[in-house]
Amino acid sequence: MIALETGQVVAERSYPLTRNSLVRYAGASGDFNPIHYRDDIASSVGLPGVLAHGMLTMGTAVQPVVEWLESSAEPGTRPGWVSDYQVRFTRPVVVDPADGAEITVVAKVGQVDAEAGTARIDLTVTFAGQTVLGKAQVRVTLP
Predict the structure, then answer these.
(1) Rounded Cα distance, 39 and 44, in Å
(2) SS3 3
(3) 3-state class (DSSP) for residue 139
(4) Alpha-carbon torsion 81, 85, 91, 95, what sign?
(5) In the Cβ-directed half-sphere of 47, how many Cα atoms lie within 13 Å?
(6) 122: burial class by Cβ within 10 Å (0-12, 13-18, 19+)?
(7) pLDDT on residue 74
(8) Going from the N-terminus, what domains does the chain have, and what CATH number goes with each?
(9) What is the 3-state secondary structure (H, E, C) of 81-132?
(10) In what order do the strands lie in the sheet with 9-17?
């Protein structure tokens, strides 16, 4: 089992999002709400601009944990896995038509249950210096 300590950072990564990312996600998810691709519609409903899909943000935010689990496995053994993942959406991610957006994820050990072989990984997910996912917690089963 991976040796972990509460407070230990296990992964940190930034992810760019572009309008192209939103179009691809819309096609994959079937969520074609125009607030995710049309500035005029987004502003007409009082939004600051086109927003990234919440589930795209959530899915992207867990990726560094998945990569960490995969890279922590001994060769020829089964890696750990995500057994539960929960977040609260606190702020939208506005995706600029030219510059896009970048979300940053810091994954830190919140709790370890060595007997059960599990850990809670707490995510801090930010965009433009502000937290966009609150109480983002990933329960993992360790290899």
Answers:
(1) 8
(2) coil
(3) strand
(4) positive
(5) 20
(6) middle
(7) 86
(8) 9-141 (3.10.129.10)
(9) EEEEEEEEECCCCECECCCEEEEEEEEEEEEEECCCCEEEEEEEEEECCEEE
(10) 9-17, 101-113, 118-127, 130-141, 81-89
Q: Give the pLDDT score at 1.
A: 67
52-55: long-range contacts (C-beta < 8 A, 24 or more apart)?
52/17, 52/21, 52/22, 52/92, 52/93, 52/94, 52/95, 52/101, 53/22, 53/25, 53/26, 53/29, 54/89, 54/92, 55/29, 55/31
CA gap 89, 57 in Å, rounded: 9
Tell me which DSSP letter residue 51 carries. B
Q: Can you give the pTM of this predicted structure?
A: 0.93
pLDDT band at 128 (very low <50, low <70, confident <90, very high): very high
